[in-house]
Design a protein that fits this description.
The protein is an alpha/beta fold and 376 residues long. It folds into three domains: 8-110, Rossmann fold, CATH 3.40.50.2300; 146-218, Signal transduction histidine kinase, dimerisation/phosphotransfer (DHp) domain (Helix Hairpins, Orthogonal Bundle), CATH 1.10.287; 226-374, Histidine kinase-like ATPase, C-terminal domain (Heat Shock Protein 90), CATH 3.30.565. It has helices at residues 16-26, 38-48, 64-73, 91-99, 112-185, 192-221, 233-247, 265-283, 340-350; strands at 8-12, 31-35, 52-56, 82-87, 104-108, 229-232, 252-255, 260-263, 290-298, 301-308, 355-359, 365-369. The model has no long low-confidence stretch (mean pLDDT 82).
Length: 376
């Protein structure tokens, strides 16, 4: 069986006695090279790339400190660990050397057993460091590869969704068109059952068209640019609320104090439109429908909410709430496709936030969301 390669150690020392001790101690277990000056040591280090350098502090010409400084300034050599050799008691030298990037010290006169332990420990640490770097580099490559694959898959999926939704429009228009022609031209020949069936076809076509529009909107929500700016959330909420007051004149919509945040105006507008629109829709059948938009602090975190006194829902189904086409009520009760909250979740998460809800049947619902690091 082949013997594993020996670790390379470069000893830089001008004292022959020290080199003799190092040679007798290290030559059997390590591939030892000798340099008697700082200049020679730098040349050998660049040539052989040792695993460890033993460096004497006191040398004529270029001393150990300057040699260490040049080693650490060289990108090819800066990661090689350095152990200084210094006389016992030179605390200032030890501090200066460690400040230059040395990994350890061995005092002179050299104690062979202690020197070997420090050298072995440092070489083992260096081996583990290099092993971790290899694994880290490999993991980074895998993450980069998976990220590219995921981005490609998401792009293909969004492109597919857009293409399918777009291609469905043509036959859907034909269904709508021919239904209207049939209803107008043949209405006297159709039985009551036939007329009802035709109406169901027309309603289904309208609903499918709305679902297609919602799919496209959901697809666009994942592609919106994240160019952030300061957004006056209070002014934005009041504007969105004013639009819904025209559609729901009976509903009392109150906008509480809201801060200026950092976010994407179009995304925040969509979030508020969906949440306030849902609140208005599901509270519209109440005797006195009410919707409140505000902010509070939960566990030290700024949280925004939209609250209503409407139909509510059973919390055991809350995990389905933000899924695509998930409905808590029938279409005859509250029309819709069930994609609005999925869009809210996607937009809020893109803004590094969270969204959740609390509710009870017939006691209204409160939808909460945060904006992560988007609050100044």
């Amino acid at each position: 069986m082949d013997r594993p390669p020996q670790a390379k150690i470069l000893a830089i020392d001008d004292a022959a006695a020290n080199l003799q001790v190092l040679g007798a101690t290290l030559d059997h277990d390590y591939d030892l090279e000798i340099a008697t000056s700082g200049d020679e040591g730098l040349r050998l280090a660049r040539k052989s790339a040792p695993d460890l350098i033993l460096l004497d502090v006191m040398m004529p010409g270029m001393d150990g400190f300057e040699t260490c400084r040049r080693l650490k300034a060289d990108p090819m050599l800066q990661d090689i660990p350095v152990i200084f050799l210094t006389a016992l008691g030179e605390l200032e030298s030890e501090a200066r050397g460690l400040g230059l990037g040395a990994a350890d010290y061995i005092t002179k006169p050299i104690n062979v057993d202690i020197a070997l332990l420090r050298i072995r420990n440092l070489l083992e640490r260096e081996r583990l460091r290099k092993e971790v770097e290899v694994h880290r580099d490999h993991l980074e490559e895998l993450v980069d590869e998976r990220t590219v694959e995921l981005k490609r898959a998401v792009k293909e999926l969004e492109s597919f969704s857009y293409s399918i939704s777009h291609d469905l429009r043509a036959p859907l228009r034909a269904i709508n068109g021919f239904s209207e022609i049939l209803r107008d031209a043949e209405k006297d020949k159709l039985s009551e059952d036939g007329k009802q069936m035709l109406e169901r076809i027309a309603r289904s076509a309208v609903r499918l068209a709305q679902m297609i529009d919602d799919i496209l909107e959901y697809s666009r929500s994942g592609r919106q640019s994240l160019k952030t700016s300061s957004v006056d959330l209070h002014a934005l909420a009041k504007k969105v609320a004013a639009d819904f007051r025209e559609e729901y004149p009976r509903t009392a919509i109150r906008v509480g104090e809201l801060p200026v945040v950092v976010g994407v105006p179009t995304m925040l507008t969509q979030v508020l439109q969906n949440l306030i629109g849902n609140a208005c829709k599901f509270s519209a059948r109440q005797g006195s429908p009410q919707v409140e938009i505000g902010a509070c602090e939960i566990d030290g975190e700024q949280v925004f909410f939209v609250r209503d006194n409407g139909a509510g829902f059973d919390m055991q189904y809350a995990d389905r709430l933000f899924g695509m086409f998930q409905r808590m009520h029938t279409d005859s009760q509250y029309p819709g496709t069930g994609i609005g909250l999925a869009i809210v979740k996607r937009l809020v998460e893109r803004l590094e936030g969270r969204v959740w809800a609390e509710s009870e049947p017939d006691k209204g619902a409160t939808f909460y969301f945060t904006l992560g690091s988007a609050i100044p």
